[in-house]
Write a sequence for this structure.
């Protein structure tokens, strides 16, 4: 893979990481503890709030996982290991990396 292509992937990964970190900060209020005082909030409203909180927590978990994948991809770029399949060692198709630069397996090994 050429240096310019690696640099483009690195920039793409950094941009995605920035977006995920911004989303993480914006959603912090959604994961706060739901108040259980029925005098202030009705039962259905509280149930909606609990469901919203759980959805926000799951979104947070997925963002953290994606951030870990991004950090690993950035480290592979630094070590010149980016674009190679973890399983067989062959090149990962360029189009596959364009779709998701965090892929670690070629299409054959991923199936």
């Amino acid at each position: 893979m050429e240096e310019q292509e690696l640099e483009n992937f690195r920039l793409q990964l950094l941009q995605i990481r920035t977006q995920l970190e911004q989303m993480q900060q914006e959603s912090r209020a959604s994961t706060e503890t739901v108040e259980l005082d029925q005098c202030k909030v009705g039962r259905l409203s509280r149930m909606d709030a609990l469901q919203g909180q759980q959805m926000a927590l799951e979104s947070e978990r997925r963002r953290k996982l994606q951030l870990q994948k991004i950090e690993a991809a950035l480290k592979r770029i630094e070590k010149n290991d980016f674009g190679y399949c973890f399983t067989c060692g062959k090149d990962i198709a360029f189009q596959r990396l364009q779709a998701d630069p965090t892929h670690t397996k070629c299409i054959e090994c991923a199936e």
Summary: The CA atoms of residues 13 and 100 lie 9 Å apart.
